[in-house]
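[audit] Reproducing an earlier prediction to check determinism. Same input, same settings, fresh worker. If the tokens differ from the archived copy the diff job will pick it up downstream; this log only records the rerun itself.
[audit] input (394 residues):
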Amino acid sequence: MNTTALQGLKVLDLSRVLAGPWASQLLGDLGADVVKVERPGAGDDTRSWGPPWVPTAEGTPSRQAAYFQCANRNKRSIAIDMATPEGQALIRELAAQADVVLENFKVGGLKAYGLDWESLKALNPRLVYCSITGFGQEGPYAHRAGYDFLIQGMGGLMSLTGRADHEEGAGPQKVGVALVDIMTGLYATIGVLAALRHRDATGEGQHIDLALLDVQVAALANQAANYLTSGVAPKRMGNAHPNIVPYQDFPTADGDMILAIGNDGQFAKFCAVAGHPEWATDERFATNPARVANRAVLIPLLRQATVMRSTAEWIAALEDAGVPCGPINRLNEVFADPQVLARGLKVDMPHPQFGSVPLVANPIRLSATPVQYRVAPPTLDEHGAAVLRDWLGR
């Protein structure tokens, strides 16, 4: 087996739920030895966030939630009571051996335990310490707890997601997964790797202050740029795009499809397939700015055309013409898709209690140091004795 990219790196994971565990799972996928510290008896909150529950090897419910499995592979679990002096001392010993500490407690929450950045830096000056909070280490909201749903609302994402105000079913809508937590986990991983690069060059660790709200605002991307440039707050547009037309869902004879036309050449090809080549030369539709300006005229014309064929017929014809398009799949269709199967996006990992657990593969493909699936999401305190032996020589 090839060497992993982060082989030899020790990560002490004091985080729970999703944003922090997503980051530590990614570091584990890349080869780091990730030790997950959990509460005795209960563990990470997401262990009980079911149903659905992962079935045991005998097929009976285990009372271990599928949610926990999604963010905790390639980690070793140790149960430590952080509320006791003995538990705090043990975590400090582990932190003294760690390269990275991840935590997502409220601001100042770990100081009373002697597990905050300043305390652990004194023990281990080379430590990279990443704090994930809802609102950051300072500011008027710093003391507040942060949750993905809350941040999607406060950070503007829900003002952009959902049907337009004049449409039936209009109203703000959250994204169907905890996207802010996921993005924060990715930013945390990037920050950790950057801090490690600096540490390796200088010998100095550092503190990473990462806030869910900051991540959400940063991820507004073109919508934020549109507002900052124009002073006009974007509104909900359903599945339509504020800057590109046509770039949305359209009805077909037996369902729906997505058209993602990104330039005028692709639009002309679509018009030819649709039997309306005149649209491509119509001054109202010939260029993307014109199509954006005349969206209200063009979209009804396209809808009248798209309902004349099935989704499969449209996709076959448009793919032959080089026009970006696709179906709107349910998850059963996603995991049966030939491309998803070819890319191996579902992996099964052996598990001592469940026989095996189905998981989604890491999408990073490294040619020299590929991701390895070494350890299934652990049972609570599964590796306590091994961690003490490997990290502390006990």
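[audit] rerun output stored. Observation attached for the diff report: The two ends are 29 Å apart (CA to CA).
[audit] end
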